[in-house]
Amino acid sequence: MSSQGDRWAKLTGGQAGEDYARRFARLAESGHDIHGEAAFCDALLTPAARVLDAGCGTGRIAIRLAELGHRCTGVDVDRSMLAVARRDAPTQEWLHGDLAHLDSLGLEPGFDLALAAGNVIPLLAPGTEPAVVRQLAAVLRAGGLLITGMGLDAEHLPLPEPTVTLTEFDHWCTEAGLTLRQRFATWDGDPYRPGGGYAVSVHSRPEGVDPRGFRETEGPSA
C-alpha cells in the first residue's frame, strides 16, 4: 500500500498485524479454506514462478505460494503486518515499502505475477492508485500477470463507501500497458456479472510491449 495517508493506515493506525493474523487463524481452525487466493494464482503459474505479493500483509498468501514451490517477495507499508510475516516465514523476502514508489526498493524486474489481494487497491492513499498500477506493471515480464481482488461496494469493503470503480481501474491498467484477460466474482472462479460487489481481475502485460506503451525493441522518442 501507500504510506501517503492510505486508507488502511487510517482504519488501523498501523497496528493491525497481530489481530489480522488471529482472525485468519480462527477461520482456519473453524474449517474455512484460507488459501483461495494462493490456489487461484497457482493455477495460472508455471512451477517456481516469481511472485510479487504487493500489500502482502501478514504474508498469508505469499507463504502458501512459497509452500507450493514459487519464489515470493512480499511488500507492505504496515510494519506491524510485516512483523508477523517475518516471524512466520523468516527465510522469505519481506520488504517495507510504499507501492506508489516500488521502484525505490531495487526489485529485479521480470516477475511472472504481481498480486494485489485483500482490497489493496481500494485502500491506497487517494490519488496514488494510477501510480501503483504503473509500478506493478513495470515489474512484470512480458506476458506476466497482474491479479487483483477488490470490493466494489460497502458490503465488501471495510469502508462506508467504495473508492474505486472497475471502469477507473481498467483505465489505469490500460494506461500502464496491461490488458484485461479475465474477471471473476470470487477467488473460486465464479463468473463476474456487472454490478457485482467484488471482482477478481486478471490483467496481463502483452508480449513485446513495455509498461510505458513502447515496443520492447524501441525506446521513447528523443
UniProtKB/TrEMBL annotation:
Q: Where is the composition biased (Basic and acidic residues)?
A: 204-222
Which organism's genome codes for this protein?
A: Streptomyces resistomycificus
Which region ranges are annotated with the description Disordered? 198-222
- CDD domains from the UniProt entry: AdoMet_MTases
This protein's name:
Methyltransferase type 11
Swiss-Prot/TrEMBL GO biological process terms: methylation
Which molecular function term from Gene Ontology is one that the record holds? Answer: methyltransferase activity
Locate the Methyltransferase domain: which residues? Answer: 51-144
Q: Which domain of life is it from?
A: Bacteria
Q: Which UniProt keywords apply?
A: Methyltransferase, Transferase
